[in-house]
Design brief:
The structure is a single chain. By secondary structure, this protein is α+β, with helices and mostly antiparallel strands. The chain is about 45% helix and about 20% strand. The strands form 4 sheets. Strands 1-2-3 form a 3-stranded mixed beta sheet. Strands 4-5-6 form a 3-stranded mixed beta sheet. A hairpin with a 6-residue loop joins strand 9 (about 210-215) and strand 10. Helix 2 packs across helix 3 (about 55-65), helix 5 packs across helix 6 and helix 8 (about 160-175) packs across helix 9. The model is unreliable at about 135-165, about 175 and about 190-210 (pLDDT under 50).
Length: about 240
């Protein structure tokens, strides 16, 4: 959370307010229409109370369910008849940390910003939470960059560059433990350009009986030790036939 964030930075300058003389049923309808649970009661511009949805509902139910002629008519009830104490007040230049302390200490879900005795905005607990939550993080950015460095594979998984390096290291270690495998890999590296550059035959120019890697022209097998016999590059098995 930024330590320099103030009430002015996050408050709602347009808020729902009613006066003490307003009809309670109309105020209750406003609570329902705006899907809120609290209205600021103002006298002129000064906050003098709050009307919470549960208080309005209780008062209307009591008046409706009384059934006696002496009871109040729900239509005659006003906001001033059932309003509660004012919301906790803060100044527009107060820090957001001060707002959080007031919300917790007074068990409220919102505070009213007051400037020169007049209500100028409202800050809810949700506003304070949203303003204090981190927007980005170095950890999240690093994770995204690592994923982007990977390449899609046939099964739609992603292999990061670090994982690819580990795989190369493992293959190198296996070749070191197996001298014959290392020798075959070295021979393949030497012979590969001749077989791939311009489509040249890997056995072209090799003397009869010379060994090289490639595809047997007789059985089609890929072997590391092709030999030339009768003008064909064949594997040892086909040469003996």
């Amino acid at each position: 959370m930024r330590t320099d964030t103030t009430v002015r930075d996050v408050m709602h300058r347009e808020f729902l307010g009613v006066s003490e003389s307003d009809s309670l049923p109309e105020a209750a309808a406003l609570l329902v229409d705006e899907e809120t649970n609290c209205l600021v009661v103002v006298r002129g511009g000064e906050p003098v109370g709050r009307l919470e949805s549960r208080d309005a509902l209780d008062a209307l139910l009591d008046a409706t369910g009384d059934g006696s002629d002496d009871g109040p008519d729900p239509a005659d009830l006003t906001v001033g008849d059932v309003m509660g104490p004012p919301l906790p007040a803060v100044a527009p230049d107060d820090s957001l940390a001060a707002v959080e302390e007031r919300l917790v200490s007074e068990g409220a879900d919102r505070v009213v910003a007051v400037d020169d005795g007049e209500a100028v905005g409202v800050v809810t607990d949700g506003d304070a939470l949203a303003a204090g939550a981190p927007r980005t993080g170095a950890g999240a950015e690093g994770f995204g960059e690592e994923a982007a460095a990977g390449e899609p594979r046939p099964n739609e998984t992603v292999l990061s560059t670090a994982a690819a390096a580990d795989s190369d290291a493992e293959r190198g270690a296996e070749a070191t433990m197996d001298p014959e495998a290392a020798e075959r890999a070295a021979a393949a590296s030497r012979n590969e350009p001749a077989g791939t550059d311009g489509g040249a035959d890997s056995t072209a120019g090799a003397p009869s009986g010379a060994s090289t890697q490639g595809v047997c022209e007789n059985c089609g097998a890929l072997v590391p030790d092709l030999v030339t016999a009768n003008g064909q590059a064949v594997c040892p098995n086909c040469r003996e036939i």
